[in-house]
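Work Package 3 (structural annotation) set out to generate three-dimensional models for the target panel prioritized at the project kickoff. During this period the team completed the workflow that converts sequence records into discrete structure tokens, so that structures can be stored uniformly alongside our sequence database. As a representative example, we reproduce one entry of 377 residues exactly as it appears in the project archive.
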Amino acid sequence: MFLAHLLRQAGVDAVVLEARNRDYVEGRVRAGVLEQNTVRLMQRLGIGERVAREGLVHAGTTLCVDGEPFHVNFSDLTEGGAITVYGQSEVMKDLNLAADQHGIRVIYEAADVELHRLDTQPFITWTTNGERQKLRCDFVVGCDGYHGVSRASIPGDALQTFERVYPFGWLGILADVPPCNHELVYANHTHGFALASMRSPTRSRCYLQCSLEDRVDEWSDQRFWDEFELRIGTQFTSRITRGPSFEKSIAPLRSFVCTTMRWGRLFLAGDAAHIVPPTGAKGLNLAVADVVVLGDALSAWFGAGDERGLEEYPRRALDRIWKAERFSWWLTHLTHRFPDMDVFDRHMQVAEFAYLRQSRAAQTSFAENYVGLPLEF
């Protein structure tokens, strides 16, 4: 949807195919932390009014190891840098409303999508309301996620992928209770990782590291809050308001990169090309960065026949992707307990926390990556 809006501004027609219905897209619980680049892009596209009014701007975050917290001030370390807490579902509402206003064509509940002639003159077929449809196009951009048809349409001998699967998951809940802190809290405890986050001043989003063998029905609300209070640190325990969860799920963690981000006239963007652990809050933001680069390249091709941007897209996108993968991998290793950790590994974690606590240079590196590396648009 971001790409469709960028292309509209450049006078390029685009059609968006969405597998689900609009209510599902606008209601599903996904990411909630926006880099400042993403917020600026929303403003550039004319959809930044509500995020400016309702988004929660965070100028820092708290890290906590074995109950000992310390604060990292993003604003001070990055000359005013910050992140904004604003749910992906709200972003989608803003994008969809603007699409209605600008006449961007979005086809919901597009089933059985197939991509054809990607190396010559592409066309797409799909089924809507029981009828098979066909669309000819100049390019196809696969923004259809890790399990989508786009990456699967690239011949296997042309694909190059890299993956790291982590031996744990995140158990997350949403509850209509006030957050225990005005900013996010990342905690490393003997029992594992915990994260105190939020969606609004009255809605909390909280996570616990859990086993991949755990099931949601094994975690009652009481068990979750008991464990959350234990891990998050005594400084925040008294501020926790318990309440019933209305959403609870377990998500596995992985790092994944497909470096084949172009094949013929097919381009990959977002989760179709890369997955990051949620620890660094990079997933949505990295997808947005992809389409900013690709949007510029497509605009140059349609506007002046300039192919350089399209040729350079994989390299430019991957430069940022690998940096985001590194940051998410590093923060995951810093904050989680791994099953094969020994005493030496734990001392290394504690030393890393101590260095981060004491070094302005280390905190600056952390803050620069967290609020978002520079992106020109």
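The mean pLDDT is 97.
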